[in-house]
Amino acid sequence: MALSNLGRNKKRTFTVICSLTLGLVLLTCINAKNASFDIDKYMSDTVISDFEVKDSSIASNFSTYDPRGTTISDQLVSQIRGLDGLEDTGRLYSQVLTHRLGESALENIRAYYNADDRLPYIEQVDPGLAEAYHEAMDSGECTAILYGTDGLVLDTFASQGYMIDGTFDKERFLSGDYVLVEASSGAEYGDSETQPTYAVGDRVELGGKEYEVMGIVKNIRASLLIPYSSSAGSLSSHRL
Q: Which residues contact residue 202 at a Cβ distance below 8 angstroms, ignoring those fewer than 6 apart?
């Protein structure tokens, strides 16, 4: 009886069969995509550790980092290091400071903002950014975020995918004569022009001492899932 019904309306039967086949194909494609998703690989490109411990003042995008915060004490660090199953640890310190830009960085910024009538356009659509540019050019200074790292965090920069330019040599870096500079957001994609920063081989002065730029790393905050605790003009903010 079922077979005879299939022949009564061949057009309708054909439509139903095509609909069921299409549904089966879509279901197979979705199942294959889900089965091929590797959560470990995805997370390895997004975070560098299974757990993070951070000061309470930067636990929210709306708070401001307190350099005198006492959330993470030496006692707490010792307790964490004594946990069973702990394989590796690392620390990341940050400090917002006023940085005097080197001549090469100033020239890079000046060339970027004066190319293709970019500055007149910015002055119209983003007066705050244009003002930050003129202030940086007049004073030779900008707001910078200085990071200090060790352990697992430092090793991360040596892995493939984090260095945009240059080669990270951990032994040379630990000599204390080198710095890594964070590229402008979006530079890791390499398919669009982004705001300039220091280049490999440039000299950077910090605290009265000169350092050589060993390499350029991609967005540190995004890589390590650090919330932005303060806002600054994208022009006048460099990460070192």
A: 102, 104, 105, 212, 213
